[in-house]
Amino acid sequence: MNFDLVVRNARLAGLDAKAELTDIGVKDGRYAAIGPRLAGKGAEEVDAAGKVVSPGFVETHIHLDKSCTIDRCACEGRRSPHDAMERVSAVKHTFTVEDVNARARQTLERCILHGASLMRTHVDVDPKVGLRGFEGVKSLIEEYRWAIDIEICVMPQEGLTNNPGTDELLIEAIEGGARVIGAAPNLDTDPAAQIRRIFDIAREFDIDIDMHLDSGASASRLDTLLVCELAEKYGWGGRVTIGHVTKLSTMPLPDVEQVARRMADAGVALTVLPATDLYLSGRDQEFNVRRGVVDANRLTRLGVNCSISSNNIRNPFTPFGDGQLIRQANMYANIQQRGMSDDLADIWSMFTTRSARIMRRDGYGIAPGNAADFVVVDASSSVDALREIAPTLMGFKAGRRTFTRQPAVLHRP
To answer: How many beta carbons lie within 10 A of that of residue 324, not counting itself?
Structure first.
């Protein structure tokens, strides 16, 4: 059989460095055959040379509309509180569709170059910014479809029940193509009312939910429990994700496990955002500072689907970042002190297969018949890739090459 593309000598993600190398044949944008020493030729032949070949990486939670604004926001005048939301809010009136598009494009291309082929981006919708953020990002969906699939989650970052006009803008954005609705009840005068309204909108338009939830230093009140209750009540299990939930990191383990089982039963997933959660947590402390990052490995073993993502990039919420999910996963593993192979294999799934499940993408992964979206990583196993923060070397979308990065070369004397 002849193929459009054959990748030779690949080491599939999840296998150790001693596993047998395999070939991957792609036809009409899909995996047609996978196995050692495939017969037949490809119109394009790529030698992976024993490097890791992984399903394309998945960003389930990023803010393209607010990325690359750190230099236009006011300086951080004090350590606690950080005032990140207020500092971004103060410059939203300067956002134009063209401005958002240019900044989002810059961040998006970095994500693609680091292996992302599927993305859910959160976009602020409120009277200050209107739909300019939404429109600036929306136009990128078609333009970059050759490299990445993007869906937009619109969210009321600055409140909903206490921010007149926001509800109408959310509806307008959904009617204009947003496929997910978000929430930020921490910043609402009536958090429960916002959560209930978001579920109402999701049911009306039959869309998924992805909420910013339960950031804080005390777990005396958990909105997560209300979200679980409503997910069960309305049959939205498997369609609800909550992000951050740093309050879980402050709780005794028996209490965390009780919440995790509740989430698993209700079908509510969790996205951990290591860079932001670490940067913003514990600012009221001078020593023995809280890290604020949830142990997703523990939650996955209790049945919760978890992902790891970048969240904010180069803005007051997170002044750093380049869209490299391997770096985010490495940071998470360091914070949680998860360094053994089984833990790292689970972490790899948190920006590949588990993330694709959050976005309800069937047919994801390296298997015959699935779309041939994959990345080649400069490491001999996915465990080594996480330990080394290995660079990506090539990416493919539906079997078409989307980027190439040359490996570093030593020039010996």
So the answer is: 20
Could you report the per-residue pLDDT of 327-374, keeping only the tens digit for each? 999 999 999 999 999 999 999 999 999 999 999 999 999 999 999 999
Question: Whole-angstrom Cα distance, residue 39 to residue 176?
Answer: 48
**Which tokens hold the place of 307?**
């992902």
Tokens of 98: 């063209």
Q: Tell me, what's the pLDDT at 17?
A: 76
The arrangement of secondary structure in 57-358, i.e. its CATH architecture, is: Alpha-Beta Barrel (3.20)
Cα distances (Å, whole numbers) of residue 190 to 96, 160, 184, 201: 30, 9, 11, 17
Bridge partners, 240 (sequence order):
209, 268
Nearest to 377 by CA among 361, 392, 365: 392
Q: How far apart are CA 10 and CA 242, in angstroms?
A: 35
For the chain, the domains span: 3-55+364-404, 57-358
Indicate if the pLDDT at residue 19 is higher than 90.
no
Q: Residue 206: CB partners within 8 Å, gap ≥ 6?
A: none
Place of tokens 């005390």: 218
Q: Dihedral, CA atoms, 61, 65, 68, 72, nearest 10 degrees?
A: -130
Report yes or no on whether pTM surpasses 0.90.
yes
* Domain 3-55+364-404 coded CATH 2.30.40.10: yes
